[in-house]
Every structure is written in structure tokens, then in C-alpha cells.
């Protein structure tokens, strides 16, 4: 089965619109004022700084921003030695060479909202460095300046700058993005990146990609490899045998990857995407059967492929029980159907249940030259064929009894006696990191029009709602003073109703 990489990245990015949490940047929150005040109280305030031993000073140093560390280094020889010996915390370093202009862009992200951006540009025999330090990424506050290095190579200067910052943080950065095909590995000072969790390499040289991979731990949260020209690079079987490929949680090849059937069956990724070279339909069939029989990758989410010819659907489904997404299926789970196909486009979909756990299932999405395997059934929230919403518990404060009805996709309903002012509703949905909102409506007619793209939401001022999300789903809880005329609907962010809570006196 031959394949092409065209469109794999587009398909993946479409689906990743739902993954606002799955792909977080890894940048940590800045310490709160309370945390800093607690530390000041503990150490007796900075007026007692000279009485602190070196261990205490180092702990304070770890909380300081880069500029504050620099100022402290001028206070005394002792402080200067501590500043020099205490690694600076850097979350992300990104270095990327321009494809149309002779420049290299570098970004340093700290453990706060501060960013340092530099652009090294070739100007004759000199290097011009555009330097911008963002004091807070939420605002436009920044400092900028231009530095000129005479008779210098802009690429070498950019690499030197990047590796100097890596040394400043003791090579302990968590996220690294490199977009330089000819990164000078022969002269690099990098030995190991022991705490790297996410690695993205862009370039057309296999040896450089391999060099970077060998610098990071064997198991990453995310590994992404993207050639600039996929006709120039195929990730070979030998390359794919590396533990960083076989063991990492997220593995994305935006190009050709020559996995054999045996190799692919041994991968442990929750998410994997690539254009196959040697992988066969039988291999994909065995991969699905591993999940169906309860032996699939732990916490599997999806696998996405792009083929140049027709997907051999018959071979892939051989020996598998499945249900085609037809009109009856759409009537049963209309909201899920709409969400799924709105994000991924048309094509043919089939639901494949687990033989081990009736609450687990896969969706096979097949289109021209494309196939995706998505885990859409979750034990925590029930199988795909069961209702979307279910009441799981009540609050503790008693209120006047009111009888309510929960509707799931306009299907069967269940009448509930609510005697408290807090309702906990748990929702199972296909996309673990999707973004949902809760909408409150004054009447059923307005809610129906809204779901059809009609009236705007009329929020009930006295109502409140919260939400929490994890990798399996989302839970909402509602608080209000029960009123006879109150209808509470929930919907996705584009208005498709998942379920509704309305008074039982209202017919539907």
C-alpha cells in the first residue's frame, strides 16, 4: 500500500482544534503573590538576606526572573557566585531558520509570561540582531533594541546564543523546537537534554534528526518530525527503532515513515500520525484487533494515516465487528455525529466495539487516501450508543422539591426529583480535550432556535456554572434557586445540544 504525506498535517491540525489541553505549551504559571509573601515570611524578609545560608538563597534565586537574578549578581561576590552556579529555569527554546530570508529566529520562554524574541539577520558581512523582550505576553509591554555584530555569520551567532542559554539552564529545558536543516552538530556543545519532554525537529537531514533524538530521554510526552520537503526524506526502519519513537506518548511524522507491520504493532503512542511506506492493511487490522482484544496502547487516542491510493477497507476490517454510521445511528447520537464530521470533514465512518469492555469503542474514519482511527468510547462516561449526559450526584443544601427532566439528544428522558440547589452533571464526549460551554435559556423555544442558529443566548443572571476537564471528559455543575419557569440547556460551543435539563411540566 503506497502513501503520500500530503494533507496529513492538515487533517491532524483540524482534529487538534479540539485539543486545546492535549498540546499545552508546558510553560508554568508564575508564582502567585501569596506564594512569594509566604516565602518572604519564612525567610524573614530581604532585610535578613545576609543572614541566610547558601541553600536558602538558592531557593529564593529559583523564583527570580532573569533580570532580577542579574541585579542580584552585582550585590556581592557571594551572590554573584550563587547566581552563576544556580541554573536558570527555561521552559522552551525555539530556533528556526527562515526559508525566504537569510535570518534565524530564536525564542526563549521562561517559567512566567515573559518571552525573549531575537531575529538574527544577514546584512552583508554583518549580523543584525532584532531583540525584543516581552514583559508580559498578555499585554503589549515590551523592550526592544537592535544589536549589530560586525564581520560575523548570522547562523553561527544564533546557534551560539541558543547553546549559551541552554548552558544557563543547565540543559534542563522541557520543550525544544529546532528548524534548521544544517544545524552544526559537529561543533555543538550539547551533550544531553535530560529533562526535555517535548521535541520538534524540522529539516531534511535524517542524521541531524537522529542526533537530536539521541540527546533526549527515551520516553517523551511529544515527538514531532517534519521535513521541509517530504520527497527528500523518508524516516527509515532503523531510525524508527529508536526508543524515543517507540515509547513516546505522542508521535507525529509529517512525512513518510517506513514502519514495518511488526514495528507499528509495538509502538506505545497514544497519538501517532504518518504516511506509511511499508505498513500493510493487514498490519493496521492487527493494530485495531489489539485494541479490540484489550491489548492496545495504554490510553490510546488516535492514529492517522494518509495513503496515495484507495484504502483497503475490506482487509482492514477483516474479522472485526463494526457498525456503519447510517441514518439510524445519526438519530441516536446526533450531537456526536455533527461534532465529529464538522471537524474532520466528510467520508465514511464505522464504529468498532471492544470485545473486552462494552463501554470502549473506536471510530474508523475513511476518506479518499486518508484514514483515522479514533478512540471515541470511554468507560468513564459510557459507550457511544448510550446517552450523553447523566446525573451523578446532588449538592448538600436542601431546597424546595422540583421535578426535572434530562434529555439526551432529544431521545428518551428520565424524570429527576431535585431537592438541592446544586446539580452535578457528567458528560461523556468523543474528544478528550474539546472545549464546551454551558448555555442557559429562559424558554424552550429560544433554546431550540439557538440550536438551529437562531436567537442569541439569554443568560440567567442568578445562575452560576463551573466546569472541569480531564483526559476522559468534562463535568459541569450548576447552582441556582429553583424556579418553575427555568429551563437549563447545555450545548457545544457551536450550538448543538448535548443534553437539556428542563422542568418536567414542559413537554417536548
Roughly how much helix do the residues carry, as a percent range? 10-25%
Number of domains: 3
Query: Count of DSSP helices?
Result: 15
Oligomer class: single chain
Strand content: 25-35%
Distance between the termini: 51 Å
The total beta strand count reads 26
Q: Measured on Cα atoms, how large is the radius of gyration? A: 27 Å
Low confidence ranges: 5-29, 380-508
Class by alpha and beta content? alpha+beta
Shape verdict: globular
Mean pLDDT metric:
72
Major β-sheet profile: 16 strands, mixed
Protein name: F-box domain-containing protein
Domain F-box: 49-89
Pfam families: F-box (PF00646)
InterPro entries: F-box_dom (IPR001810), She-1-like (IPR042317)
Can I get a quick summary?
With 508 residues, the protein is of the alpha+beta class.
SSE arrangement:
Elements (H helix, E strand, L loop, with lengths): L7 H9 L16 H11 L10 H8 L4 H8 L3 H9 L4 E8 L5 E8 L4 E9 L2 E9 L7 E8 L4 H15 L6 E5 L18 E5 L3 H8 L8 E5 L7 E2 L1 H4 L2 H5 L2 E8 L3 H6 L4 E6 L4 H12 L9 E5 L6 H4 L6 E2 L2 H6 L1 H11 L3 E6 L7 E7 L2 E8 L11 E6 L3 E11 L4 E8 L1 E6 L8 E2 L2 E2 L2 H8 L12 E6 L4 E6 L7 E6 L4 E7 L5
Amino acid at each position: 500500500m503506497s502513501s503520500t504525506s500530503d494533507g496529513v498535517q492538515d487533517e491532524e491540525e483540524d482534529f487538534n482544534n479540539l485539543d486545546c489541553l492535549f498540546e499545552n505549551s508546558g510553560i508554568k504559571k508564575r508564582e502567585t503573590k501569596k506564594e512569594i509573601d509566604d516565602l518572604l515570611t519564612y525567610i524573614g524578609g530581604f532585610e535578613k538576606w545576609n543572614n541566610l545560608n547558601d541553600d536558602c538563597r538558592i531557593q529564593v534565586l529559583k523564583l527570580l526572573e532573569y533580570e532580577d537574578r542579574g541585579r542580584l549578581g552585582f550585590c556581592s561576590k557571594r551572590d554573584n557566585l550563587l547566581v552563576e552556579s544556580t541554573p536558570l529555569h527555561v521552559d522552551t527554546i525555539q530556533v528556526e531558520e527562515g526559508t525566504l530570508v537569510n535570518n534565524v529566529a530564536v525564542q526563549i520562554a521562561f517559567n512566567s509570561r515573559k518571552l525573549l524574541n531575537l531575529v538574527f539577520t544577514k546584512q552583508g558581512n554583518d549580523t543584525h540582531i532584532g531583540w525584543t523582550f516581552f514583559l508580559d505576553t498578555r499585554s503589549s509591554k515590551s523592550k526592544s533594541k537592535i544589536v549589530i555584530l560586525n564581520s560575523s555569520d548570522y547562523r553561527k551567532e544564533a546557534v551560539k546564543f541558543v547553546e549559551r542559554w541552554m548552558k544557563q539552564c543547565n540543559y534542563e529545558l522541557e520543550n525544544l523546537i529546532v528548524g534548521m536543516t544544517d544545524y552544526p552538530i559537529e561543533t555543538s556543545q550539547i551533550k544531553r537534554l535530560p529533562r526535555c519532554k517535548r521535541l520538534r525537529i524540522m529539516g531534511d537531514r535524517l542524521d541531524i534528526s537522529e542526533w537530536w533524538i539521541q540527546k533526549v530521554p527515551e520516553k517523551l510526552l511529544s515527538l514531532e518530525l517534519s521535513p521541509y520537503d517530504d520527497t527528500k526524506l523518508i524516516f527509515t526502519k532503523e531510525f524508527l527503532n529508536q526508543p524515543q519513537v517507540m515509547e513516546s506518548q505522542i508521535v507525529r511524522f509529517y512525512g513518510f515513515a517506513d514502519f514495518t507491520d511488526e514495528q507499528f504493532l509495538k509502538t506505545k503512542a497514544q497519538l501517532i500520525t504518518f504516511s506509511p511506506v511499508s505498513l500493510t492493511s493487514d498490519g493496521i487490522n492487527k493494530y485495531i484487533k489489539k485494541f479490540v482484544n484489550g491489548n492496545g496502547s495504554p490510553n490510546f487516542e488516535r492514529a492517522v494515516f494518509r495513503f496515495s491510493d484507495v484504502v483497503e477497507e475490506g482487509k482492514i476490517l477483516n474479522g472485526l465487528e463494526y457498525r456503519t454510521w447510517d441514518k439510524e445511528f445519526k438519530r441516536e447520537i446526533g450531537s456526536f455525529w455533527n461534532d465529529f464530521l464538522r471537524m474532520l470533514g466528510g467520508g465514511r465512518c464505522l464504529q468498532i466495539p471492544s470485545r473486552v469492555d462494552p463501554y470502549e469503542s473506536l471510530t474508523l474514519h475513511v476518506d479518499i487516501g486518508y484514514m483515522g482511527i479514533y478512540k471515541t468510547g470511554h468507560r468513564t462516561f459510557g459507550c457511544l450508543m448510550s446517552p450523553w449526559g447523566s446525573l451523578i450526584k446532588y449538592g448538600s443544601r436542601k431546597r424546595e422539591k422540583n421535578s426535572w427532566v434530562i434529555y439526551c439528544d432529544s431521545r428518551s428522558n428520565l424524570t429527576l426529583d431535585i431537592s438541592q440547589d446544586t446539580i452535578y452533571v457528567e458528560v461523556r464526549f468523543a474528544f478528550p480535550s474539546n472545549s464546551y460551554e454551558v448555555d442557559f435559556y429562559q424558554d424552550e423555544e429560544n433554546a431550540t432556535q439557538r440550536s438551529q442558529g437562531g436567537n442569541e443566548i439569554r443568560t440567567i443572571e442568578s445562575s452560576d456554572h463551573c466546569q472541569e476537564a480531564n483526559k476522559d471528559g468534562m463535568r459541569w455543575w450548576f447552582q441556582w434557586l429553583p424556579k418553575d419557569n427555568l429551563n437549563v440547556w447545555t450545548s457545544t460551543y457551536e450550538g448543538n445540544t448535548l443534553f437539556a435539563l428542563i422542568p418536567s411540566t414542559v413537554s417536548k
